[in-house]
Structures are given as structure tokens and as C-alpha cells.
Recover the amino acids of this structure.
């Protein structure tokens, strides 16, 4: 087991305890054991070491005391800050982005998922390449791929760039194949529904309960990375398609959002999002905000949502349905684990599907098959 010293600073943004608890789960998911937790308060990060000289020495003392293998920050560090900290603490230092990327690498099972994670890791590495190769920045003879007079750093950057380009090409091919399947569903007029939500909110459990899919579900962060799609039959409307997607998290690394573009595009092209919320979490409001932020980043902010208020068995709330001012269903309260309230969710899906079908028929002229212009107000 990797022995780790964890570091989290409070910059006055609130929900410090919830973020620290989530940080501990992330570290455990990566296979490390927390031997010490260093906390503190600052107005702003230190430019050189993020934590300041005194706090850096405190971290170094904890590393020596616990014989730690690694220091993990629950913040994003610059390459310079990471390099300076490693000199002070005399062991490897990683930030939140690298930690999440490592967990994704552990969880990826499909070919596409592995390609996406590798691309994100290489893009993250490219910003820090100088750190790993500073001791090799000297002229060497040209052998094999290395050109005359080319430094090790330049060679590594060139090879990394080639690998990134190759991965992007492979992912574009998979993206085109996904688009073909999506157009086929659209031609058949099949409603497309995507489950979204904060990691460990219960999306995969709900997906399995609804579709009997048997997708992997566990009480851990990022249990699902690979999108799984299944058909669900609703007596009132027939077949619809439901997709289980990767869970979101606050401050999701931009490299991951970019690398998972093809997968996340499936979400943006859905007809409806089921936003699954862990109603038992004290941090649920911040989690909802984090999910909506990622949805904005991937262009899915305008896709209709029904909030699924999950885990009511843990809060002793009653199953039920809430409607907005337009009388449309906005929230369904249920328990994916016990199945209580699932009938209400199926009814909500059928209601949305019928309304969606009616809107589509209203927009299309049956004589010419074209979209009718909006009526003058």
C-alpha cells in the first residue's frame, strides 16, 4: 500500500469538511493510504510552493515521520510549484488532476475508455515535461529517432506529440462510428435518455434496476467510466434508449473533459437528462452545481433535465414527484437500491416521451416533411 501525506488548504470557499472527506475517498480509490493530513488557511496560493515555506516544511516533516512515498494535494499545482515542493519534501508530489487521471486509468476497461484516459494523461504530462527531463537537457548524438543535436527533452516532446496525434485520430474514428449509431436511432425516432450526476450518486445502480443491464456498480468514486447503452420498454410509448455515463466531480480536469469529448457528446445529444442526485449527501447542492458546470462545458446545458432525488431510503423521505410552474415533472424522489419510486420514474419518462413525440409531430409538416415556421406572435 502506498503511504501518502494529504494536503488541503482552506481559501474560504466553504464546504471544507465535505471536500476533505471526498479527497480521502479519491486517495483510497487510487490505492493509497493516508498517513497524515495537513490542513491550513490562506488568502491565496503561494506562487512558489502553493502552501508557503512554513507549511512546506511541515509537510516535509510529516513525510519523514511517516516514511511516506508520496504527497497528494487536493488542488491543482503548476509545474513550478510541483517541482519546488518535491525539492523541499524529498518525495514525489502530485496534484488533484493527476490523482483523478490515475483513478481513471485504473477504472478504464473498454478500448475507447483506455484511449481517452491515455490521451488525457499525455496532455497533462506535456505541461510538465520539463520537470522529468531537466537532468537530460544536453546535446546527444543522433541515433535512431533522435536527430543530430536534438536534446532528450526535444525528442521526448516530439514523440509525445506523435502519440497524442495518433490517439486523437483513433478517437475521431470511434466518434464517427458513435455518430452513425446516433443518427440511426434518430431516424427510428427513438427517445435518447442519458443518466448524469456526481460520482457515486447511484447512476449505475439506477441504470441496472431500470434496464436489468448488469453494469458494474460499486460504492466507490468513478466506478463507471465506459458508457453503457440499453433499451427500455415503456408500455405507453414503446422502446427508449438509456445510457449510463461517467460520473462528474468538482474541478474535473480540463484534459479529461477534452479527452472524453466523444463520450460526453452522447450526453449533449440526448433528448433528456436524468440528473441523479445523492439526496443523503450534506454536500448535494455543491454537487448539483458541479454537474451543471460540466454540462455547460460540454454544451449540454440546454438539454431538458429531470432531477432524480436518489437514496431516499437513507433519508427516510417519501417517494414522490415534483412539478414546475409549467406542470412538467422536474424531480422524482426514489431509491434505486430498494426500487421504491421507480414506477414514478417510468411514468415520468413515458410522460416526457409522449410530449416529445407530440412536439416533433407539431413541428413537422406531414405533407412536406419540413419544419413549419413559428407562428407570429
Amino acid at each position: 500500500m502506498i503511504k501518502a501525506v494529504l494536503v488541503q488548504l482552506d481559501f474560504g470557499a466553504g464546504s471544507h469538511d465535505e471536500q476533505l472527506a471526498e479527497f480521502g475517498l479519491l486517495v483510497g480509490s487510487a490505492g493509497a493510504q493516508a498517513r497524515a493530513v495537513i490542513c491550513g488557511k490562506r488568502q491565496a496560493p503561494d506562487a512558489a510552493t502553493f502552501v508557503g515555506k512554513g507549511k512546506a516544511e511541515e509537510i516535509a516533516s510529516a513525510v519523514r515521520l511517516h516514511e511516506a512515498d508520496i504527497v497528494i494535494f487536493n488542488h491543482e499545482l503548476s509545474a513550478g510549484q510541483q517541482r519546488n515542493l518535491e525539492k523541499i519534501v524529498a518525495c514525489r508530489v502530485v496534484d488533484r488532476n493527476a490523482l483523478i487521471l490515475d483513478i481513471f486509468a485504473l477504472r478504464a476497461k473498454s478500448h475507447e475508455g483506455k484511449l481517452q484516459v491515455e490521451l488525457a494523461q499525455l496532455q497533462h504530462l506535456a505541461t510538465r515535461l520539463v520537470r522529468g527531463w531537466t537532468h537530460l537537457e544536453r546535446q546527444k548524438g543522433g541515433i535512431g529517432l533522435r536527430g543530430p543535436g536534438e536534446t532528450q527533452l526535444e525528442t521526448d516532446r516530439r514523440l509525445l506529440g506523435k502519440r497524442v496525434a495518433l490517439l486523437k485520430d483513433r478517437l475521431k474514428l470511434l466518434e464517427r462510428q458513435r455518430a452513425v449509431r446516433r443518427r440511426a436511432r434518430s431516424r427510428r425516432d427513438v427517445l435518447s435518455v442519458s443518466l448524469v450526476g456526481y460520482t457515486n450518486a447511484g447512476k449505475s445502480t439506477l441504470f441496472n434496476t431500470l434496464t436489468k443491464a448488469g453494469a458494474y456498480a460499486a460504492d466507490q468514486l468513478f466506478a463507471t467510466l465506459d458508457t453503457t447503452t440499453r433499451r427500455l420498454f415503456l408500455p405507453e410509448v414503446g422502446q427508449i434508449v438509456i445510457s449510463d455515463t461517467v460520473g462528474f466531480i468538482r474541478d474535473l480536469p480540463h484534459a479529461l473533459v477534452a479527452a472524453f469529448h466523444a463520450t460526453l457528446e452522447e450526453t449533449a445529444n440526448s433528448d433528456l437528462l436524468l440528473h441523479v442526485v445523492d439526496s443523503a449527501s450534506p454536500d448535494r447542492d455543491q454537487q448539483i452545481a458541479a454537474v451543471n458546470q460540466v454540462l455547460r462545458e460540454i454544451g449540454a446545458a440546454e438539454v431538458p433535465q429531470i432531477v432524480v432525488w436518489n437514496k431516499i431510503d437513507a433519508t427516510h423521505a417519501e417517494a414522490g414527484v415534483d412539478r414546475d410552474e409549467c406542470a412538467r415533472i422536474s424531480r422524482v424522489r426514489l431509491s434505486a437500491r430498494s426500487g421504491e419510486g421507480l414506477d414514478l420514474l417510468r411514468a415520468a419518462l413515458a410522460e416526457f416521451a409522449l410530449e416529445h413525440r407530440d412536439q416533433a409531430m407539431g413541428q413537422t409538416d406531414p405533407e412536406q416533411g419540413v419544419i413549419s415556421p413559428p407562428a407570429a406572435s
